[in-house]
Design goal:
Elements lengths: L7 E4 L14 H12 L1 E5 L2 E5 L2 E5 L11 E7 L6 E8 L3 E5 L10 E7 L5 E5 L4 E5 L10 E5 L12 E13 L2 E7 L24 E6 L28 E6 L2 E6 L9 E7 L1 E2 L8 E4 L1 E2 L19 E2 L7 E4 L9 E6 L33 E6 L3 E6 L3 E3 L11 E4 L2 E10 L2 E11 L2
Antiparallel strand pairs: 1-15, 2-8, 3-4, 4-7, 5-6, 5-8, 6-7, 9-10, 10-11, 11-12, 12-13, 12-14, 14-20, 15-16, 16-17, 17-19, 18-25, 19-22, 21-23, 23-24, 24-25, 26-29, 27-28, 28-29
């Protein structure tokens, strides 16, 4: 069976990958590459087929990963061209399945690259502003993801670096917004986009994707949690990142200090609905933090994949155009088959919460994470797409592929509140 290529992923170690550093604009470059343009084109030395299996060899290390989707162009035989998911890889070769069983040798000037997820970038400027949008016109709601990743006039170049993000109903230019926004404060309409104050008393943004601050969630040894403030000077160096997504969603997992393995969880997209509703509902996964540059805070208080996501305080999942929300509602991430009370702590992949169930992989895989509103009554909204929870302590290697029936799943290390944990992503049908 030829594997689905709808869901794609990328890592910072891919050849010619954009890098997150201690410089404004990094997040825009990353989004451009993964969502819109693709990257990493490499010449192929040979491409041969044995039955339905194609093997491509390169003159040097290609740095593709097993499970990644690649795009082949330039082969004289059309069967080889197009998108394919890698099912075997070594340092200088990759293999994938195709349907051209009668073709044995590819000729031509052949190149392989990582194709984009397939979003569009309707608006941008020469600085650090951009607006991205799903190209799926069948969606009932298709907001713009507006990203501002440039230094604000009230901010110092030595302060923490992050992108200010929000979902906007309509745009006619990068600074021309109208309609509904998430997040939005009617008492301070520019709260998410325009800084105020000065020096250590400056405010700059509300919903944020951090990528360069002084401290991670834990110290270098991982033994204790850390606090920080945005006026402290971040360390120079390359941050780790991982991006995965499809036509209606994407997630960015990244560290905020050089090579510390403490991945935070960001992204946006359409919630996979559990019940039939007339309108598609979007989520925005971000840190929601409105504080001064000099204020001390704990990053794990904002970025929390664990259990409770409160609208009024430490929100991670913001819901776009949620109808009929009650004042007492709180947004929860939870998973089925997990008995818990309102304040139960279930951190994905950080502890052995259940015994081995004896499945084919030797570890239990948990069904999708669910989003629900709990207030006067509980309303299950659906679940973030392609995201699975684990109730075992990091049972798989980082970016390890796991077959689960017809599903191809990928494990990824992530910080779950203050704990080192793991989640699973659904890549669709396996090869």
């Amino acid at each position: 069976m030829v594997a689905s290529t709808d869901i794609k992923f990328y890592v910072h170690t891919n050849n010619n990958a954009p890098q997150l550093t201690n410089n404004f604009g990094c997040m825009i470059s990353l989004l451009d590459a993964c969502l819109v343009n693709g990257f990493g084109s490499q010449a192929v030395e040979t491409m041969t087929a044995n039955g339905t299996t194609v093997t491509a060899t390169f003159g040097s290390a290609h740095n593709f990963l097993k499970g990644q989707v690649i795009k082949v162009v330039g082969a004289d035989q059309a069967e080889f061209n197009g998108e394919h998911r890698i099912n075997v890889e070594s340092a200088t070769s990759i293999s994938f399945s195709f349907t051209g069983a009668n073709v044995t040798q590819a000729t031509g000037s052949i190149f392989v690259s990582l194709p984009p997820i397939g979003w569009e970038k309707p608006f941008g400027d020469t600085g650090g502003k951009a607006a991205y949008r799903s190209t799926n016109e069948a969606l009932t709601a298709r907001p713009y993801l507006r990203v501002v990743d440039e230094i604000d006039p009230v901010w110092s170049s030595t302060y923490a670096k992050y992108a200010k993000v929000g979902l906007v109903e309509d745009m006619t230019g990068i600074d021309a917004m109208s309609g509904f926004q998430t997040p939005f404060d009617s008492m301070a309409p520019n709260k998410n986009w325009v800084g105020s104050g000065s020096g250590s008393a400056a405010y700059n943004g509300w919903a944020k994707w951090h990528y360069s601050i002084l401290n991670g969630i834990r110290n270098a040894s991982g033994s204790q949690t850390q606090t920080q403030n945005n006026s402290s000077v971040p360390k120079d160096g390359i941050r780790q990142w991982f991006v995965i997504g499809g036509g209606d969603f994407f997630y960015i997992l990244n560290t905020v200090t050089p090579l510390d393995g403490q991945y935070l969880f960001y992204g946006c997209g359409v919630i996979e609905k559990s019940t039939k509703t007339d309108e598609d509902m979007w989520f925005l996964a971000s840190d929601l933090s409105y504080t001064t540059a000099g204020n001390t805070y704990a990053l794990y208080g904002f970025n929390n994949l664990a259990y409770q996501l409160d609208y009024s305080s430490t929100v991670t999942m913001l819901l776009y155009k949620t109808l009929s929300r009650l004042a007492g509602d709180r947004c929860f991430l939870t998973c089925i088959k997990t008995a818990r009370e309102r304040d139960a702590l279930i951190y994905s992949g950080s502890s052995d919460y259940v015994l081995n169930t004896g499945d084919i992989n030797g570890q239990p895989l948990i069904p999708p994470v669910f989003l629900s509103l709990e207030g006067a009554f509980t309303r299950v909204l659906g679940h973030p797409p392609a995201l699975y929870w684990l109730l075992r302590d990091k049972p798989f290697g980082d970016t390890q592929l796991v077959s689960n029936g017809d599903q191809l799943l990928l494990a990824k290390h992530v910080m779950t509140s203050t704990e080192f944990g793991q989640v699973m992503f659904d890549l669709g049908g396996g090869a």
